Input
Amino acid sequence: MQEIDNILDQTKKQIKRVEAPDYILTRVRQEFENLKEVATPKFIWSAVFATMLLLLLNIYVIGQNRTYTISETEINPEMEEIMASSSNQLYGDE
Amino acid sequence: MEFNQLYYDHKDLVYNLALKYLQNVEDAEEVTQDVFVSLFAKAEQFEQKAQMSTYVYRITINKSLDFIKARNAKKRQGFLSSLFRSGNQEAIFIQDHFNHPGVELESKEEVSFIMNCINQLPDSQKTALILHKLEDKSQMEISEIMETTPKAIESLVQRAKNNLKKIMDQAKDK
Output
């Protein structure tokens, strides 16, 4: 195990301490400001408002589709009658 | 606490520790940035300097280990896609990836080999070994950082050394 200790001691000597670049601080400040902007009450309220608007739009679209389906089923019996009478006419001509 | 002071007090500690885990300048810079964003967000919670230092170590270790996990997942994905291509891209990636500004050119190969072997240890053993042998931290300090007992740290370092020997022997045999 002494061999491993020696290798690790040697590695420690070979790795010199370096200075962290200062431009990281600029990047950190920028990211931190962005995060703070996202966390403001104004931003949260606008996100809630947008979600509600989207939800209402979805309900409206689903509602429209349902009305269309119902009116389609109401028309169907009439259509069937017309179809039947027209086909009777055809057979009658024969 | 003033952000600038917080940065200048801990920047070298964070950057050098991240470099020991990642052995790459760009990756270490990314982790350092992540660490300080988290620190700035929680700066007001820390009034005592000692408490802050332990937290800085802890958060740097966690962010570095998370980064390694994400990098390995990406590498696996790359390996899967390389199965459909020809060439030895995986080997090229590992060789090119070692970029430590604190290691001189003549020791690069040797340090790269040892750090690569240390990287294969389980996370807790790797952390205990890096802090004890490369960062010169006492067992007491490491136990505070890793939130365990000094006895457990002693055992972790011992197991890490045993496993490291096995990994190095296997790598030399290949």
